[in-house]
Amino acid sequence: MHKVLIFGATSAIAQAVARLMVARGCDVFAVGRNQEKLAALVADLRVRGGPGRTIGFACADLDRLEGHEALYAQAKGELGSIDVVLIAHGSLPDQRACEASPEALLAAMHTNATSAIVLASMAAEQVADGGTIAAIGSVAGDRGRQSNYVYGAAKGMLALFLQGLRNRLAGRGVQVLTIKPGFVDTPMTAAFERKGLLWATPERVAAGIVRAIDRRRDVAYLPWFWGPIMLVIKHIPERMFKRLSL
Left (φ > 0), alpha (ψ -120 to 50) or beta: where does 25 sit? Predict the structure, then answer.
């Protein structure tokens, strides 16, 4: 039975992952910022898990790096050990606001890159040998585009860090999984016009995350078709790519 720690547990994708994990018989410790949403999630997981299942939680702002160590200690105290760490928190910044304000730019980078990287770095010392560290990045991190390059840069930074961490922890048998979703129908993308085959539900992405953990994958594009799409995008010559309106 796995012991699962989820940061950003109230995000749509993370909630779906938590439900799948509990259905498998896992114990879960959920960390989220919104107290009301977190309480509702924990109540739901406890009903799904039934008696004897450990469902712990902590309400915290993960932008506050000084609180990360205490969260790991609390999670380990309730779970006993940690087999899987899922880092799922983040925000979708306003690109134009980031261009106009250094403060907004730095805040976006802090939430989507720095705080996630610090959590992943600490996870290396907390997760059991043979366990899993997984973090949700984005296909946006594969190539900078004018429409969202601040967000993309943050996710690209996270992906590169995870690559190095994967190399470092391979000797311990620790899986370091970089999750790269495409368009997902969540509250974070509420301003987008959702239509077409490229959009996925949080439940579909969550199932892909669990499957990637089971298969000990290094990188998972979700849904799968984003892998070929991004392969093409990454190989467009820069002299052509810079002229595109993306």
Answer: left
Mean pLDDT, all residues of the chain: 95
Nearest CA-CA partner of 11 in 150, 111, 153: 111
Q: Give the pLDDT confidence score for residue 107 in this predicted structure.
A: 98
Could you tell me the residue ranges of all domains in the chain? 3-241
Q: List Cβ neighbours of 114 (8 Å cut-off, separation of 6 or more).
A: 65
80: tokens are: 């006993």
What residues are paired with 86 via a beta bridge? Answer: 6, 134
pLDDT of residue 183: 87
pLDDT tens-digit map of 221-245: 999 999 999 999 999 999 999 999 8
Are the CB atoms for 181 and 200 separated by under 8 Å?
yes
Reported in sequence order, the residue ranges of 49-190 that DSSP labels E, i.e. its strands, are: 55-59, 84-87, 132-136, 175-181, 183-184
Nearest CA-CA partner of 20 in 191, 205, 207: 207
CB neighbours (10 Å) of residue 27?
A: 23
Class of the CATH-defined domain 3-241: alpha beta
| pLDDT tens string 95-129 | 999 999 999 999 999 999 999 999 999 999 999 99
Of 167, 72, 178, nearest to 128 by C-alpha is: 72
Q: Report the distance separating Cα 137 and Cα 90, nearest Å.
A: 9
DSSP state for residue 9 in the 8-state scheme: T
Q: How does DSSP classify residue 128?
A: P
Q: Dihedrals φ, ψ of 158, to 5°?
A: -60, -45
CB atoms inside a 10 Å sphere around CB 239: 7
Q: Tell whether omega for the bond before 237 is within 30 degrees of 0, i.e. cis.
A: no
